[in-house]
Input
Amino acid sequence: MSKVGLIIKREYISRVRKKSFIVMTIAGPLLMGGIFASVFLLDKVDNEQKTIVVADDSNMFADKFKSNERVTFIYSHEAVDSLRHNSKVRGYFGVLHIPAASNLPSLEKAVTLYSESQPGIELVSKIKFTLEKEINTSKYIEAGIDEKRLEGIKTDVSIQTRDMENKQTSTGLTTGLGFGAGLLIYLFIFIYGAMVMRGVLEEKTSRIVEVMISSVKPFQLMLGKILGVALVGLTQFLLWIVLSFFIFQGVSMTLLNKKSDMEHVKEMMEKRGAQNNPALMEQQADQSTTEQINEAMSTINFPLIIGMFLFYFVGGYLLYSALFAAIGAAADSETDTQQFMLPVTLPLILAYVAAANIISNPQGNVAFWFSIIPFTSPIVMMVRIPFGVPYTDVILSMGLLIAGFLFTTWLAARIYRTGILMYGKKVNYRELYKWLTYKG
Amino acid sequence: MNILSIKNVTKRYAGHTALTDVSIEVPKGSVYGLLGPNGAGKTSLIRIINQITAPDEGEILFNGEHLRPHHISQIGYLPEERGLYKKMEVGEQALYLAQLKGMSHAEALSKLKVWFERFEIKGWWRKKVEELSKGMAQKVQFIVTVVHEPKLLILDEPFSGFDPVNANLIKDELLRLKDNGTTIILSTHRMESVEELCSHIALLNLSKKVLDGSVRDIRKTFRSNTYEVVYEGHSINLANSLWGEFELVENIQLDDHWCAKIKLTGNSTTNNLLQSLIGNVSLHSFKEIIPSMNDIFIRLVSNKEEVTL
Output
């Protein structure tokens, strides 16, 4: 076996056998499953009924407020003040006062919701939506448009996004896919880049490193470590994906086993979306969602995306892990690494922040430059790719990433080979620059 | 035949020069001491021989060939800053390091077993390195340095950190390896610790070589022709006997006898001195005062003279 092969093998086996690796591999998906489960459980706990008394002095809204499993609306003709005073005793959450108004515009600003505690945005928007709808109808009628004609006037626009081959596309799906891939790369670089750094530091502090580099070249040692850790990362990710799948299955089976629950979740989600944007609800209602997603899925070029993902996943990791290795070599202890960490992690964080922005404008200038520059491209390009990127951009970006990787590795190797033999020396950037000029 | 020829090597770091035009010849089968105070350039030179760094100027020949990466398998190196992977098992780690020196797995395993038996540490094979005491770890480090049977063994400050028992064990092993034809380079700033082992030495100071050659030749050059004489009798008799051809450097009384240091002057010989003494005092002992490497070093450095033999 070649020397690099031996090093890769040791780096891989020594990490995979560690208890912390096994614990993290099992705990990772459990943690995710736990978060997933607790969101649902919390939502269930939060599901307590609220009662709102409607004091409708205008008499325009009789039976217009529909109760659901979260809010019950009851109507009362008592005076608002007495309702307010007795709300605690009677267990009301709030009192909605709609005063009698001489005209509709004055009514618009006159409604008050009294409540024991601050009402949620969901509740307020539900009430607002009902009020607006009824006042609107009244206004039309006042203007001489009868309800029948009104039905005819009502407009319901829904835009379908289709590609040039007239196939259904889904912006939501594309966004999710791109962002998910970018996030994975971001996490991978951070977790395993730091692992490389700690590995180098360990060799330095345990003083094995000089024995090692009398047998192998510093570059071989660095490369072996980077590749070994990459394999550890891939193994862990693969296991996470497999385990997460099973845990997700398990959680959904136990938490959502009853059909009513399933429906409830679906309904809840729809309502959430609808209350923020009422038009959406109706749009969603008359579309067969599954069919659309299936068609949208078929327009996404999965082999391309998976291929790209692997390329940027590996390329981004290699680019950064070389720098992390150099940091480990330059520092004497983990606390020493801080001053060098910032410039390395800054572009990563920037890329991640930019990615959120780029989703809304995947073909813009920011998107272009961030997906070309090697330090941000692994994350940003992945966000862009599902939206369709010109081949010239992709080739340029990939080429630059390879060049960037070669450059950082060269740079890192020069810092590494000097740094690993420097014990107990406080290193600054000027010192690092000097190391670059030493003859190997 | 020299196993290692270092020719005019210069190594500069930003701000200082670690080695200035250093040339050293290491004969095959010798125990070569690389001596000098801390910061003289010993470790820099050793790292160049191990191809950890490259010289800025000069060249190095190994067995007459230009030093190349494939020579690594013929060199064993125990650095001053030495350690092991703490979380690895002893046997596994020894196998790993032996394989990195180019041994096959099977070969490394069988050779290591022999060494582990020889050092009586067979029971440690499956122990983690972090469970070992410092002395135990040192034995393992020594084994992995020599297991691939290097033609040239380089030990940087080998006895620093070794307890006396282990130090003796290592000394014996080094002598055994030397008898089997291994060339050994020892580097140390404690010159007295290796004098008895070395057949050749080079003295380094402030990045320059100030002296090199065989220990015998160096001693010959630096002998002061001074003898220590322990005798009984009157010191006045001694003084009389030395009339003319000898110089009395020191004469002190110890209980019932005297100890004198006498230097030969002019063309007088040891025999002349003895003849003169025997007639006048009763001798207990007579021996030449041999300068230690430390004395020689201090003399050279303070005089700033360069001596080539």
About this structure: Chain A touches chain B at residues 1, 3, 6-7, 10, 14, 18, 202-203, 206-208, 210-218, 417, 421, 423, 434, 437-440 (CB under 8 Å). Chain A has a mean pLDDT of 81. Residues 218-255 of chain A form the longest helix (38 residues).
